[in-house]
Recover the amino acids of this structure.
């Protein structure tokens, strides 16, 4: 009986531990390759018609519509690192903050992936010290690999 029990107990412990480790690895978020396309401010005082929002863009039509809005007051996309996106391989996360009455604001984003979702952690940074008096709207646009996973903002 001992000869059967010892190997059985060993296998039970082995499988129980590996399942816990596998589950932990599956739920631990890992970084995703991102490319910042633009991290700046709109200066149209809201005339662009873009409210505070978080957008996931997965096709060229939606991307062109956003670019049109962004450029409606100033040629903002002239400063983008790229505007031609291959939506077969990539998607866009675009985040727009509230309109601010002074300059000096910015946004940052860390994008990770778990086994079930993409997590975009967005933080807004305020100004320190004296700020220029100008109406701005901070925004951040990043490119990430195309995925069917939902994007969850934090």
């Amino acid at each position: 009986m001992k000869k059967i029990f010892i190997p059985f107990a060993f296998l039970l412990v082995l499988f129980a531990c590996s399942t816990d480790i596998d589950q932990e690895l599956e739920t631990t978020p890992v970084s995703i390759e991102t490319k910042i396309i633009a991290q700046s401010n709109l200066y149209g005082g809201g005339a662009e018609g873009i409210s505070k929002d978080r957008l996931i863009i997965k096709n060229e039509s939606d991307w062109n519509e956003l670019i049109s809005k962004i450029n409606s007051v100033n040629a903002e996309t002239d400063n983008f690192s790229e505007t031609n996106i291959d939506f077969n391989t990539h998607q866009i996360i675009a985040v727009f903050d509230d309109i601010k009455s002074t300059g000096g604001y910015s946004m940052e984003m860390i994008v990770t992936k778990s086994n079930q979702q993409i997590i975009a952690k967005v933080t807004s940074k305020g100004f320190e010290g004296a700020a220029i008096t100008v109406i701005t709207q901070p925004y951040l646009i990043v490119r990430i690999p195309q995925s069917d996973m939902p994007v969850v903002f934090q």
